[in-house]
Amino acid sequence: MSTQRAFVIGHPIGQSRSPMMHNHWIAEHGLDAAYGRRDVPPEALGAFFEEFRREGYLGANVTIPHKLAVREHLDTVDDVAAAMGAVNCIAWVDGRLTGGNTDAMGLVANMDVAVPGWESGARHAVIYGAGGAARAAAYGLRERGLTVALCNRTAEKAEALAAHLGPGITGHGLDALPAEMARADVLVNTTSLGMIGQPPIDLDLAHLKADAVVYDIVYVPLETGLLADARARGHRTVDGLGMLLHQGAEGFRRWFGVMPSVSPALRTLLEDDIRGA
Ligand code: ATR
């Protein structure tokens, strides 16, 4: 049998750590497979999927800006991707090229590992932002029984996303942040604020309950200003690298039928790469 191939597609794609992660697991499991990155501009998406079907590729991860646009090139999307309105993971299911989404599952799986027991007594989450990552965070946290307030600079975007996602999720402007933070058990930053090259985040954590968990999707740098501030105030914290690893693990399981381990060695491999970036 020839080498099985999978890709991460996006535009741009140079910064993706998915190849490093998946090729680590491929080697660990002794598989005849290869995971590559492909820079696919929007106008080349159709040609990529023609090639995908012709060559019989195994699967793909999808990142910005294609998470919505890939839909028309697939045979179907599963229930989670349909409810979330975004695809990040493509696999063959019963002979049909199927779009799924492992971001929400990865986000909460990361919490389960990083802050065990976080769920007990947790009822409400506040999410800063209303883009693609907020979509995954809101969906994943609601699945675990929390109500969610999306607070965004552009209030209309948060309101529209809340309306799309449905019960248990509300949308607000940033003026609602202090009150929402005061009753939240989990705070998630899904904006790019605090990322290298972006402005620092401007949240006042004094509003939070003492036992609230603080989660930052940003992982470049690994220790963001938000996480440093939260830790200094005694909050339990969760970083974004774990979300990348756990969403990836679920994709790997869908393609190869085995759940790979999110080991300290793999984490160190990616951490070293991020520090050297
Ligand atoms: P992603 O898919 O990674 O979540 P996105 O869809 O571009 O990225 O969303 C980025 C989020 O960060 C948005 O919620 C954006 O707010 P707007 O909807 O108002 O644009 C938020 N964001 C980006 N820069 C920001 C800033 N300087 N201040 C506050 N919010 C910001």
Write the layout of secondary structure elements.
Blueprint lengths: L3 E7 L7 H11 L4 E7 L5 H11 L3 E4 L13 E2 L1 H6 L4 E5 L2 E5 L2 H12 L9 E5 L3 H12 L3 E5 L3 H11 L3 E4 L4 H6 L3 E4 L23 E4 L8 H8 L3 E3 L1 H17 L7 H13 L1
Parallel strand pairs: 1-2, 1-3, 4-6, 7-8, 7-10, 8-9, 10-11, 11-12
Antiparallel strand pairs: 3-5, 5-6
Bound molecules: 2'-monophosphoadenosine-5'-diphosphate (ATR).
The site of 2'-monophosphoadenosine-5'-diphosphate has 15 residues, from helix 5.
Order of helices and strands: EHEHEEHEEHEHEHEHEEHEHH
Give the tally of β-strands.
12
Q: What is the rounded distance between the termini?
A: 37 Å
Binned, the helix content reads 25-40%
Number of domains: 2
Mean pLDDT score: 96
Structural class: alpha/beta
| CATH topology group of the largest domain | Rossmann fold
Order of the strands making up the biggest sheet: 2-1-3-5-6-4
Which strand-content bin applies to the residues?
15-25%
* Main sheet characteristics: 6 strands, mixed
- The number of helices is 10
Stretches where pLDDT falls below 50 for ≥5 residues? none
